What we know:
about 100 residues, mainly alpha, 2 domains, two-stranded antiparallel ribbon, 4 helices, elongated, binds zinc ion
Amino acid sequence: MRTPNSACVVCSTPLYRRPADLVRARHVACMAHRGEAQRLSGVTEAQRAGLALGREKGTNHRSGYQHREESRAFTASIQRRFSVIRRIEAFSLETPPFHR
Ligand SMILES: [Zn+2]
């Protein structure tokens, strides 16, 4: 048993939590009050954003987000360059090396 360094937010039972976990945690709760403590702490902005997308399968990816214009331009430039390379490769495949 470790020396307690925190307490349950509901019943004040002394609890040990790793210091790194205490930094991240929004609350400390014993196992019995875990659900109640989560209800009291509420939903964070990140959690709200995730919930806004919905819980259905396939709705947790990009459906709720918009691509930025700069990332659109970046992807387009790569695709343009790739298509040029593909055309050059296709041409060089048509003419076998010994005929050039
Ligand atoms: Zn408790």
